[in-house]
Design goal:
The chain is mainly alpha-helical and 268 residues long. Helices cover 50% and strands 6% of the residues. The protein is extended.
Length: 268
Amino acid sequence: ASLLKDLPLDLFILCSSITSIRGAVGQVDYCAANCYLDAFARSRQLANCISINWDAWQEVGMAVDAKLPADLLERRKKELEATGIRPKEGVDAFDRIIRARLSQVIVSTQNLLPSSPESIAFDTAVEQTTLPLAEVTLHPRPMLQSNYAAPRNDIDVAIAEIWQRLLGIEQVGIYDNFFELGGHSLLATQVASRLRESLKVDLPLRTLFEVTTIADLSDKISSTQQVMSGPTDVGAILEELEQLSEEEAQQLLSTEVQTRATGENFST
């Protein structure tokens, strides 16, 4: 870290292993070495340092090159064919990882929860990047179909900053498409989390797949906030009902029943 701290590195990738997450019999030394890589990346001693916990690959890597007895070799071959990472999948995962800017990412085709639930209960699974935007390495805005358009209001600004931080892009326009900028489901999940923190609005994840520009998302959030701030206080409604007399309550109920009956007759 001391040798590289003054260099403006765009990325510093540490190829760790899934072994540091779920362990393996007879691989204590290998597990410990990879745990060190993970801990170093998470310590943020080096800017833009990412530790990638790779699972076994199908066609290349240590799992393929390992010297094993014939019976174990055949078993390993079947395991890799069933669960190993294909090279194309690995390249795609790597491209997504360098855009996500997390300090640690697990890449596996298998569900890790059943084998080791506690091993992935650490905060890097949905890590919250806390560096100020000025300290995050950002890259120029790519060529897009839409021209750059500046934020219109505070909500636009808040969303733009979240997108810039997660996508690693220095300038995001309000009409830029999230997925054209390199967004994907993992980043969409983080966007939802950041919006919940900064704007106090809880949007379903599917909204981020349907509303893909800052402008549309900002309008959606504005309308949601207006509904949330409207007169929908359940406590106030109950208090108002309690203040009704028995006769007023009966009359209100009768009116509601008649209204529903009229609506049903009209619809039929």
